[in-house]
Design brief:
The structure holds two protein chains of two kinds. By secondary structure, chain A is of the alpha/beta class. Helix content of chain A is 34%, strand content 25%. Chain A has nine helices and ten strands. In chain A, the strands form two sheets. A six-stranded mixed β-sheet of chain A has the order 6-7-8-3-9-10, with helices on both faces. In chain A, strands 2-1-4-5 form a four-stranded antiparallel β-sheet, covered by helices on one side. In chain A, helix 7 packs parallel to helix 8. The mean pLDDT of chain A is 82. Chain B contains nine helices and no strands. Chain B is mostly helical. In chain B, 43% of the residues are buried.
């Protein structure tokens, strides 16, 4: 295995009485694409938010490039999170800024690039995800869901991050657009040579973008292996999930 | 002793909320004082909060000034003290009604708008997105609004003072048959610089409270459209109450000593 880029060990997080993460261990190698699958509400997003520093875990450690970032905050934390680009579930574009300003946001903020130069970089990043310059002057609200995802992807890769997070990249898109986005993700991750961590419950998407799949259930990673082995995982939980069966060991809480 | 439990629960909840608000305010203020500041964003907020509030502030002030003159005339005419009207108008406007009414109107107009905008950014993950793009949300969203509030409210109050006194003048001269030159002379005679300054100082505090409440409730909103609606309501209600309460405290500090 290559050198680890991100290491999570014994990550625990509860909200009030509800335990969401109950000892998550996961290692993501440099240049590897790992997909975390799991039911809605299993705490997949919480893992991403912990790594980004948006939430702080109750116990456990998070390392990026072998440096423990769990207890860091402020500027020291920022140096590590600056390596991470993120594509949000509903794109989370800034609706008060035009499309190109969204893509150029980190360029202008982080390195203080002049407006014209930032715009050019933004346009080239948008071209990489199949968006023409005619889109640049539009407002995010004028775009369809698939287009917003593309802009979000362009924004996430604008600063050539070493790590990219994808939060449910295909949710809310039609199957064809989902596949287009999957292809884009695979291409951009390969072009950048980045490490990717995605969360999804869309198995078609997971099979396409993952080198390795990890399944989160009841706050723990219950299975973790190469994508080719997912059909022979030998775990009933994984089988039930990838085939989408209502009957099986995973019981959906219909009532809370 | 079980009746003590609910009391304690309410008290603890209140203390937790107060603590969260104070931590939020201190963090926000520290970002207002430390560079870098986003000049363009501050400018945009000054236009939003200040310039676009002018019509509302102007209308509030002119009708308040007019009604002040009218009401004090009906009272003072009984004692042949009509000459005091100019003084009542100018002192009430500059000391109390200018800052308080402007504060309340801006709380309704701007506080709600800030809470709704910041709240929507929270529930659509735009605030999280800011963090992942190496931008501190306090610096980018909160500080410009707080600075704009503290800077623009005093200016709005000066505008309101002038328009309010003018409203009193209009009623006194054209409806109550005062002598125009005499009315203006009386107004100047009553007005001390400290009256205007105390009102302006209040306005700066109110500007801080209005924008702080908008930002705080928006920043901590959750749960989609309904959460944003609640945040907007809470921002206006809490800002209004804080304005009235702090107005009393500041007045005590300025004039009762």
């Amino acid at each position: 295995m290559t050198t680890p880029k991100i290491e999570l060990s014994d990550l625990k997080k509860s909200f009030g009485q509800k335990t969401v993460l109950d000892g998550v261990d996961l290692t993501i190698g440099t240049g590897e694409s790992v997909v975390i699958i799991g039911s809605s509400g299993a705490g997949k997003s919480v893992i991403l938010k912990c790594i980004l520093g948006l939430l702080s875990p109750d116990t456990g450690t998070i390392s990026i490039d072998c440096a423990d970032v769990t207890a860091l905050y402020g500027k020291a934390r920022e140096r590590h999170t600056a390596k991470i680009g993120m594509l949000f579930q509903r794109a989370a574009l800034f609706d008060s800024l035009k499309v190109w300003e969204n893509v150029a946001f980190a360029l202008r903020g982080r390195s203080g690039a002049p407006r014209k130069q930032a715009r050019e970089t933004a346009l080239s990043k948008m071209a990489q995800v199949g968006l023409g310059p005619d889109v640049a002057e539009l407002w995010p609200a004028e775009l369809s869901g698939g287009m917003q995802k593309r802009v979000g992807l362009a924004r996430a890769i604008a600063t050539d991050p070493e790590i990219i997070f994808f939060d449910e990249p295909t949710t809310g898109l039609d199957p064809i657009m989902s596949d287009v986005i999957n292809d884009l993700i695979v291409d951009t991750v390969r072009n950048l040579g980045a490490t990717a961590l995605s969360i999804t419950h869309d198995m078609a998407s997971a099979r396409k973008i993952a080198d390795r799949i990890a399944m989160l259930h009841d706050g723990r990673i219950i299975w973790d292996g190469p994508v080719a082995e997912i059909d022979n995982s030998g775990t009933e939980f994984v089988d039930q999930f990838i085939h989408g069966r209502a009957a099986g060991p995973i019981k959906m809480a219909l009532r809370r | 002793m079980s009746f003590l439990a609910p009391v304690g629960r309410v008290l603890i909840r209140f203390l937790v909320a107060t603590g969260r608000l104070v931590v939020f305010a201190l963090t926000a203020v520290s970002h207002c004082l430390r560079p870098p500041l986003y000049g363009g964003l501050i400018g945009r907020q000054i236009i939003q909060i200040g310039y676009f509030s002018l019509p509302v502030v102007g209308l509030t002030a002119i009708f308040t000034g007019m009604v002040l003159a009218l009401q004090s005339y009906t009272g003072f005419a009984r004692f042949n003290a009509e000459s005091a009207i100019a003084g009542v108008v100018v002192l009430s406007m500059t000391r109390e009604l200018g800052p308080v009414l402007v504060g309340l109107m801006v709380a309704g107009r701007v506080g709600a708008a800030i809470a709704a905008e910041v709240g929507t950014m929270r529930v659509t993950e735009q605030i999280d997105a800011l963090t992942t793009l190496s931008t501190n949300p306090y610096k980018y969203l909160i500080a410009p609004r707080l600075i704009a509030g503290v800077v623009t409210l005093p200016i709005l109050v000066v505008v309101a003072d002038v328009i309010g006194v003018f409203g009193g003048y209009l009623v006194s001269v054209y409806s109550l048959d005062f002598n125009a030159a005499n009315y203006l002379k009386l107004t100047w005679g009553f007005l001390e610089p400290f009256d205007a300054i105390s009102g302006i100082a209040k306005a700066a505090v109110f500007g801080f409270l209005v924008t702080l409440m908008g930002c705080y409730h928006g920043f901590h909103s959750r749960g989609g459209a309904r959460g944003v609606g609640t945040a907007a309501t809470n921002a206006v209600v809490s800002a209004s109450i804080l304005i009235l309460a702090s107005n009393y405290i500041i007045t005590t500090a300025f004039f009762a000593a």
